[in-house]
Amino acid sequence: MAQELTGKEFTGKRVIVMGGSRGIGRSIALGFAASGASVSICARGAGPLEATRRELEALGVTAHAASVDLADAAAIEAYVPEAVQALGGLDVLVNNASGFGHSDDEAGWAASLTIDMMAVVRGSHAAIPHMKPGSSIVNVSSISALRASSRSAPYGAVKAAVMHYTASQAKMLSRQGIRVNGVAPGSIEFPGGSWEDRRTSNPELYQTTLATIPFGRMGKPEEVAEVVLFLASAKASWVTAQTIVVDGGQLVGP
Predict the structure, then answer these.
(1) Is 155 a catalytic residue?
(2) CATH number of the domain residue 127 falls in
(3) Lowest CB count within 10 Å: 43, 215, 224, 242, which one?
């Protein structure tokens, strides 16, 4: 599980994972903690948030958690300094939250823009003053950014904007010695996630999507976390402005 993700190369590092209570965010947080980092996570749901905080704490590191509505600019501005104080500094920021805005209407666009995009912007703006040369930001996009979709136009368009902003951030922050990269996961299945739900609620979509993945299975959150940890590590010291696709070949098909 999380202990198998990495060694202890993040010992002494301080990490914030925005949207870190479930799924990919949880696996990222556990991966950093298993490698020795102190970790703060935020999300809205108090139950999953506390459960993940306890998992982090059980790995023997400083673990901090806060219930935050990532659509609320003031909440983000309050959370980040609180997390930095709890951790004693900040070395890595992971922007992972999503509003999953699928419908091509005001509600769908608002969900994606306020969380998938603006939480990245606001979280980064709040975190950067606390980051020193050698720090790193990793933004979570999606392969939906790389192809047209009739099911989730707002989500895909905004995730494409996240990829563009990742490269722009990298350019803007290079003089400060801060690297910025991203990951674009494919279809990832985990307990309580959308693909687990679709397995039973929309089996036709589930099977159609599964058929596009050459390995014949959905991805695991830990497989995305592995790439995030690499991008934030010293092993990727000369990597910036990149978004790495983590989809088991889903984009190219079987």
Answers:
(1) yes
(2) 3.40.50.720
(3) 215
As a whole number of angstroms, the distance between CA 58 and CA 209 comes to 36
φ, ψ (nearest 5 deg) of residue 246: -130, 85
pTM, two decimals, is: 0.94
Q: Of 79, 155, 165, 206, which one is the catalytic site residue?
A: 155
Q: Residue 192 — left, alpha, or beta (φ > 0 → left; ψ -120 to 50 → alpha)?
A: left
The model's pLDDT over 175-184, given as tens digits with 9 standing for 90+, comes to 999 999 999 9
Q: Are 31 and 5 contacting, i.e. CB atoms less than 8 angstroms apart?
A: yes
The rounded distance, in Å, linking the Cα atoms of 98 and 198 is 18
Decide if 250 contacts 208 (C-beta within 8 A). no
Tell me if 128 is assigned to some domain: yes
In the chain, where do the E strands start and end? 14-18, 38-43, 63-67, 92-95, 136-140, 179-185, 243-246
